[in-house]
What we know:
This protein is α+β, with helices and mostly antiparallel strands.
Amino acid sequence: MDKLLKLLDTNARLTTAQMAAMLNTTVEDIEAKMAKLEQDGVVRAYKALIDWERTDRECVTAVIELRVTPKRDYGFEGIAETVMRFDEVESVYLMSGGYDLLVTVNGRTFKEVSMFVAKRLSTLDSVISTATHFVLRRYKESGVMFLGEQKDERGAF
């Protein structure tokens, strides 16, 4: 299973036939394993990693540190569930250290993201403080490099 997960993490567009050949097994075995991984919630989604700087779409990303007061009987889960339901929120992580939750937010402009933090996020009952850091440039994300031109790694003939 671990090898299959690594293949999916590297390239989720591989066909079941390609994965079966790479893992020296059958297409039926791969299909069964993938169905089980999806059913068990191990594989949550298949998603393209897009370099928005190469498009004409405006996109601003911010990483926000949240200090919160955990809710009685819910711990951090209650506030995390509230935060992750906002459409602008890309990800939410429980952290150790100087703050409690790390939130990644996407918007069209710096002002849009700032207004989201000021009017919707920081006003939540459990939020003690926020610290917003705007992403100025992505160099690498999910193991994929964004700096420079993409090289064709298929090899020359």
